[in-house]
Design brief:
Layout lengths: L23 H4 L3 H19 L4 H10 L1 H18 L8 H4 L19 H4 L7 E2 L6 E2 L4 E4 L6 E2 L3 E3 L5 E3 L3 E7 L8 E6 L35 E6 L2 E6 L10 E3 L3 E3 L2 H5 L1 H5 L11 H26 L1
Parallel strand pairs: 4-8
Antiparallel strand pairs: 1-3, 2-7, 3-6, 5-6, 7-8, 9-10, 11-12
Length: about 300
């Protein structure tokens, strides 16, 4: 098979032998390239048969734009294979104008953000139980959102914390008349008080005062008693109460009996104690053994508590 002569090229191997130009056979498989190669082969045969027509055919091939385009493709292919390899820009260089650079100011992986994934607890929940005494400002319930609502004598903070506005006793309750689904926390003034209050019941005054029944004052009684009967007015005397008997007001604002009165209680009850005999060593030995046994017993109990 004869070689094909193309303008600008000295020699091109046949299609079957691609060892001299690696990769050329794969690119020559295009239909347009094959057609141009066939046309060039035919023109070469014609030029060898008719030497005079050779230049005319070449000029006609150069003037045809459809045939010139595959020829330039082969030239670029051969020049790429014969010349030095040109560096092919990678995808990152092609997208360089569209890429963004982020300078990390804080680590974003590993243990750097463990505290944000599993933070410490916020100690939510009930801080005061039902029936516990509170003072104004005491926090009763910490929550996120309104799971519980403030009832009587309570208020809610901006972080949904329920706190007491009056001193009293805590009550957790439901009030269907106020809202069918909400749960309330309130304060009552009496330890036995209940919430909610009956409908149309009088509102309790928030004075932290409890109603106490009035007690009639005891009439003064003197030692002189006058009585009137059918025989006339009679005046008599009664024994006055002994102020020394009974509990007395002592320092510290307490009522108690005097120490000397307490000390004479055994004497009044007729209880006598044996006098101490210094020469009775057997009784002293018994008391000493009892103290030793008691100390050993307490020591053994102390060791069990530690375990």
């Amino acid at each position: 098979m004869k070689p094909v002569y193309l303008s600008g090229l000295s020699h091109v191997t046949p299609r079957g032998n691609s060892s001299f130009f690696p990769g050329l056979s794969e690119k020559l498989r295009l239909p347009s390239v094959l057609k141009s190669a066939q046309i060039n082969n035919a023109s070469a045969q014609v030029s060898s048969a008719l030497p005079g027509v050779r230049t005319g055919v070449r000029s006609s091939l150069r003037s045809t734009p459809a045939l010139y385009q595959p020829q330039s493709l082969i030239q670029r292919t051969l020049s790429a294979n014969l010349g030095l390899p040109k560096p092919t820009p990678s995808l990152s260089h092609r997208l360089l104008p569209f890429s963004q650079v982020r300078y990390a100011s804080h680590a974003s992986q590993g243990t750097a953000n463990r505290h944000s994934r599993d933070p410490a607890g916020k100690r939510l929940g009930a801080k005061r139980t039902n029936g516990e005494y509170v003072v104004p400002g005491c926090i009763i319930f910490r929550q996120r959102g309104s799971k519980w609502f403030p009832g009587d004598n309570c208020a809610m903070g901006r972080d949904h914390t329920i706190y007491a506005t009056q001193a009293g006793y805590v009550r957790y309750y439901l009030d269907p008349a106020r809202h069918p689904d909400r749960k309330f926390i309130g304060i009552v003034f009496e330890k036995e008080g209940r919430l909610p209050h009956p409908r149309n019941a009088p509102t309790r005054r928030k004075l932290n005062m409890v109603s106490v029944p009035r007690v009639e004052p005891v009439a003064f009684q003197s030692d002189m008693v006058a009585s009137i009967n059918e025989n006339g007015t009679q005046v008599g005397s009664v024994p006055a109460a002994d102020a020394a008997t009974g509990p007395q007001l002592r320092p510290g604002y307490m009522y108690r009996e005097a120490n000397w009165v307490i000390g004479r209680a055994a004497e009044k009850a007729g209880i006598t104690a044996k006098s101490y005999d210094r020469g009775n060593r057997w009784l002293a030995w018994r008391k000493r053994q009892a103290r030793i046994e008691r100390a050993a017993q307490m020591k053994s109990l102390k060791g069990k508590k530690k375990k």
